[in-house]
Amino acid sequence: MAHLDPLLNDLVIANRILAHEEVVDAYGHVSVRHPDRPDRFFLARSLAPELVTHDDIVEFTLDGQPVGQESRALYLERFIHGGIFEARPNVMAVVHAHAEDILPFGIVSATPLRPVIHSGSFLGAHVPIWDIADKFGDTNLLVTNIEQARDLAKCLAGWNVVLMRGHGFAAAARSLIEVVRMAVFLPRNARALLKAHQLGGQIKYLSQGEIDARNRGYGPYSTETWRAWEYWANKAGVGNLVTRPDGTKT
Amino acid sequence: MAHLDPLLNDLVIANRILAHEEVVDAYGHVSVRHPDRPDRFFLARSLAPELVTHDDIVEFTLDGQPVGQESRALYLERFIHGGIFEARPNVMAVVHAHAEDILPFGIVSATPLRPVIHSGSFLGAHVPIWDIADKFGDTNLLVTNIEQARDLAKCLAGWNVVLMRGHGFAAAARSLIEVVRMAVFLPRNARALLKAHQLGGQIKYLSQGEIDARNRGYGPYSTETWRAWEYWANKAGVGNLVTRPDGTKT
Amino acid sequence: MAHLDPLLNDLVIANRILAHEEVVDAYGHVSVRHPDRPDRFFLARSLAPELVTHDDIVEFTLDGQPVGQESRALYLERFIHGGIFEARPNVMAVVHAHAEDILPFGIVSATPLRPVIHSGSFLGAHVPIWDIADKFGDTNLLVTNIEQARDLAKCLAGWNVVLMRGHGFAAAARSLIEVVRMAVFLPRNARALLKAHQLGGQIKYLSQGEIDARNRGYGPYSTETWRAWEYWANKAGVGNLVTRPDGTKT
Amino acid sequence: MAHLDPLLNDLVIANRILAHEEVVDAYGHVSVRHPDRPDRFFLARSLAPELVTHDDIVEFTLDGQPVGQESRALYLERFIHGGIFEARPNVMAVVHAHAEDILPFGIVSATPLRPVIHSGSFLGAHVPIWDIADKFGDTNLLVTNIEQARDLAKCLAGWNVVLMRGHGFAAAARSLIEVVRMAVFLPRNARALLKAHQLGGQIKYLSQGEIDARNRGYGPYSTETWRAWEYWANKAGVGNLVTRPDGTKT
């Protein structure tokens, strides 16, 4: 499976970037779908993302079971990834995290989380809030089985991000580089929106047309997207791991 | 007392984690009850927690007196620990600190500090506010004798955390690892709640059932709890000190 | 063009300071007008500012075209700089960035961004808000051609800073050292204003007379201005590059 | 003047602590009165406090003139120190700074800055706001002559801290160690108060009796005070410079 190395390498980078940008801490995780087997995905074993290396990555089926023999502890919430990959064939990468500044938007609903800055456009025009209590009553708030994960995926529907009440968010995208970008800009958009709300007056959200225009122009390996990926990897201390899609080092 | 070494080692780690996570600074302290002598506890001599080593740990009786000959300066507020250990036989570890983001909730009472995020569930459904002035009038706000500490413990009652007006908080738990976790997530829960309040609208607190469900599932050495302990210890530069309860290094 | 070396050296320092002070991250850029050819300016190739070195600097005409043969990727938004240099002959340096704390002031308009602290005086008495949608409808919010840049420059008019709705700001000044200073103090002034607004009551902005008095006393190489430039350069790790205008090292 | 070395050494430490704790940056300064000549004081030459060493310290008369021949640039606002030392014979140390989180309280006056946390008690029950415009009209907001400084000192009167509208604060105390402590806890008290205000409801300030009780118990070299001084010096990288009043190293 040497041909998977660049992808798994990118998954390590994604873990480190999300840790360094404080999207994840001891908790939170990022996964990528298997490029040849759409019914499988890769995710680290239970480990703080900033410590993840190539050897910590485990292959899972969409119901959250490890493909090989696996004696190491696994993330309790790995089902989130499987549930979303199952429901959304075009999604190639998923992040689940507790980034602090998005939490308030899942606790109250009067001010919806929507894009107010251009780098937040990839959230899309609507970010649904999933409350695990609606269907499952009093739980520990964690998504610990595939049934809960499927309900979460149903709430996410065709959107890019779903807030999980009192817990965090899940984000889905067409590539690792895109889902990392989304997860990094999500708290920034949330802070700008909270502060705009504090200043008072009518908030100018991005229009649907602007969101569409930005989506049309997006490319995972465009100069602009790549600049942030490299920059974040450098800051996270894994700049040396960065390899372009054509296999060249940057 | 070599059999106490793992526990005192954990107490050193707890000091360093609380310092690195900015729960304590020059002030604030963490203690653990003596496992064989429930009428005694361990706490550092007067020293900033980030500097505490094994040799700085002192054994105290519950009325705050050092057990052996002790010429070094001691924390003025060591009584807080004794008072809580005395009143609560099941409590094995106590933190007292001034973490900045919890202070506002002790100064005004209109918005009670309660769990709004899953990692805040261990605060419990209610966090009482103790005002030293209610019983002791105009003081320097410090808990400097056992009588004040007993009054504080009475206000804490069976809860896990008590806010101290204009001063800080005290937290009590069944183990060091749990009290550290509680103390780290307490300011985070406070920030999420303040920001939710700023966004406006009805706040969805964790339900009693959710708090109970999380309590039932909690284990001090579960994979998930351990992951954070190790992560925080690494970040605080004492990852090398971490030893599992069975004595193995991680 | 060895006589340009000190200026290009300062442009490198400016990039690093803006990165270290978190005015720019992967995005945002700073330019300086060519001292001998007012119809040209210098700006880095597409690169995160904290990585910019002398070799990354490219010479452009005011319509955003590189002067020499240039195969490296360029900033999409280089037109911002050309547009402002074209419209404002006295402007010698321009910054464009997304500094987080100014974003809210471009999203809502009820609380105008104006100087409330003395170091914010160089913003001037008015900071216009440019909404790209007003003239160009639904775009990706980026300024990607000279027509958009000219419209932005028209909104900036004779002011020093223009907010770009949902995107960031552009700042124009008489020298690199001044535009960097303005860009660093802009978010600080924004934070002080937001918090004053939160405290409630009548806000005391700087008066026009105070803004004028500060402008009269300003010199790019005064002891006070230089102190900050040196301090920021040291913090950004490029203190060794700092050279006084007379060519002496500091 | 070798007997002054411990004091000047402490002044260096004070500069570094204030820089590291982000009370000062490129701007702001701390002074100490000459112990043998109450009509003189020590203050660094114009330099960012984090760079100050023993050799940068200059002796001044109370009207802000250097005592010896001095060719190096001096702080424009050194008059603040002289004005306060002149008006307040018991004051031994002064800080002037722009710490960001106190700025809002000088811009609006609806919510007065007063102690809400025990470590803020040394601000005293009242913090006056001085607006340079009241007497001097439109200025650059800086205190650049002794007349302005005397007016500032008059507004400070017998209090410990005075806010300077749109600019910063000045703090006066009986010792260097006390004025540093005051300057570090001032922004913390300001943040706790702002957030309490945001939570809503009646704010419980420290009572006059509590402020008095804390003042009575204060000693510049008490175990508790010393613990913070040592801790801050260590964090600022000058722990090695710390010497106890009796000349022993810690």
Annotate the secondary structure layout.
The structure is a homotetramer of 250-residue chains.
Chain A: H1 5-20, E1 29-33, E2 40-44, E3 57-61, H2 79-87, E4 93-97, H3 103-107, E5 129-130, H4 132-136, H5 146-156, E6 161-164, E7 168-173, H6 176-199, H7 208-217, H8 223-235
Parallel strand pairs in A: 5-6
Antiparallel strand pairs in A: 1-2, 1-4, 2-3, 4-7, 6-7
Folded structure, characterized:
Four copies of one chain form a homotetramer. With 250 residues, chain A is α+β, with helices and mostly antiparallel strands. Helix content of chain A is 37%, strand content 13%. Chain A has eight helices and seven strands; from the N terminus they run αβββαβαβααββααα. In chain A, strands 3-2-1-4-7-6-5 form a seven-stranded mixed β-sheet, sandwiched between helices. In chain A, strand 6 and strand 7 form a beta hairpin. In chain A, helix 1 runs parallel beside helix 6. Chain A is globular. The model of chain A has no long low-confidence stretch (mean pLDDT 95). The interface between A and B is large, with 35 and 36 residues.
